């Protein structure tokens, strides 16, 4: 059970702290089962005040943990793994890397090659337990896979995928949240231009986007099916949609997704 699991997050940037907040929101999860590291721990004061262990010593932080989450930049992965390797407990300790583009084999080159190792790609909605997390693994058994799945299910939803799709998952799930936020910002700007103050426009847009997502999830609908329900003949919705398409809306979105993917591939 996740409530009895000791978890260490190495390198608490935006994503690491989002996961930490999500974990602390789980009923019954003890704050002292969570250890966070950062070079300067002063920025982790909010967690320390809740009873979370905060350290600058990565090697000390991994000792006794059941799951070690690596929330560091991809180029730092080899050096961090070499740093914590003496404190790792081989096949009894799971390594979870959040780093884009660093393969399972590349991780295992730096630690015990039989260690149970995962790659996971959540997004910052972990902060409010609404992340989508894609996971792949190597050297793992069913109980270990279930435990890591339970961890990320506690901060949203998880999908197990083939490692070859992890970079695509990064673009669609992690980069994707920024695409949605930029779209929302543009809607708010449009709302201001047609007469709303910024606060009211934000409230309308936020709930509209939330409602659209929930409609897709709960009704299991294709977006076009829902769009058809609000595009009446000669109506204002179809006029707006057609103008967006004339300006390259869908094409720009697809090209943005591909550009992010090509950046990772390089």
The CATH superfamily of the largest domain bears the name NAD(P)-binding Rossmann-like Domain
How is the largest sheet built, in terms of strand order?
3-2-1-4-5-6-7-8
The end-to-end distance, rounded to whole angstroms, is 39 Å
Largest sheet: 8 strands, mixed
Radius of gyration of CA atoms, rounded to a whole number: 21 Å
Mean pLDDT: 94
Report the count of strand segments: 8
Unreliable spans are none
Q: Give the % helix.
A: 40-55%
CATH class of the largest domain: Alpha Beta
User: Helical region count?
Assistant: 11
CATH topology name of the largest domain: Rossmann fold
- The CATH architecture category of the largest domain equals 3-Layer(aba) Sandwich
| Shape call | elongated
Q: Any idea how many domains?
A: 2
Report the structural category.
Answer: alpha/beta
Percent of residues in β-strands: 5-15%
H/E topology pattern: EHEHEHEHEHEEHEHHHHH
The oligomeric status of these chains comes to single chain
Outline the fold blueprint.
Layout lengths: L6 E4 L3 H11 L9 E4 L7 H4 L4 E3 L2 H5 L4 E4 L6 H8 L9 E4 L6 H5 L8 E5 L9 E8 L3 H12 L2 E5 L5 H28 L4 H22 L3 H8 L5 H11 L2 H17 L1
Parallel strand pairs: 1-2, 1-4, 2-3, 4-5, 5-6, 7-8
Antiparallel strand pairs: 6-7
Helix pairs in contact: 7-8, 7-11
Q: What can be said about this structure in brief?
A:
This protein has 266 residues and is α/β, with parallel strands linked by helices. The chain is built from eleven helices and eight strands. The chain has helices spanning 14-24, 45-48, 58-62, 77-84, 104-108, 142-153, 166-193, 198-219, 223-230, 236-246, 249-265; strands at residues 7-10, 34-37, 53-55, 67-70, 94-97, 117-121, 131-138, 156-160.
């Amino acid at each position: 059970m996740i409530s009895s699991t000791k978890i260490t997050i190495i390198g608490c940037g935006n994503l690491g702290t989002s996961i930490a907040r999500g974990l602390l929101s789980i009923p019954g999860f003890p704050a002292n089962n969570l250890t966070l590291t950062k070079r300067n721990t002063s920025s982790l004061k909010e967690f320390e005040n809740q009873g979370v262990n905060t350290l600058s010593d990565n090697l000390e932080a991994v000792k006794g943990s059941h799951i070690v989450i690596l929330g560091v930049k991809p180029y730092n992965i080899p050096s961090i793994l070499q740093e914590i390797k003496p404190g790792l407990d081989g096949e009894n300790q799971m390594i979870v890397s959040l780093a884009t583009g660093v393969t399972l084999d590349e991780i295992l080159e730096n630690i015990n090659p039989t260690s149970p190792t995962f790659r996971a790609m959540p997004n910052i909605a972990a902060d409010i337990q609404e992340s989508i997390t894609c996971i792949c693994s190597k050297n793992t058994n069913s109980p270990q896979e279930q435990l890591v799945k339970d961890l990320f299910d506690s901060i949203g939803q998880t999908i197990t995928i083939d490692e070859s799709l992890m970079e695509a998952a990064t673009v669609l799930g992690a980069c994707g949240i920024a695409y949605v936020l930029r779209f929302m910002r543009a809607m708010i700007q449009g709302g201001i231009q047609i007469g709303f103050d910024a606060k009211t426009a934000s409230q309308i847009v936020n709930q509209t986007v939330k409602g659209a997502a929930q409609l897709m999830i709960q009704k299991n609908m294709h977006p076009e099916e829902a769009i058809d329900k609000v595009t009446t003949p000669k109506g204002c919705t179809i006029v707006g949609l057609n103008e967006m398409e004339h300006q390259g809306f869908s094409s720009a979105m697809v090209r943005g997704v591909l550009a992010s993917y090509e950046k990772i591939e390089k």
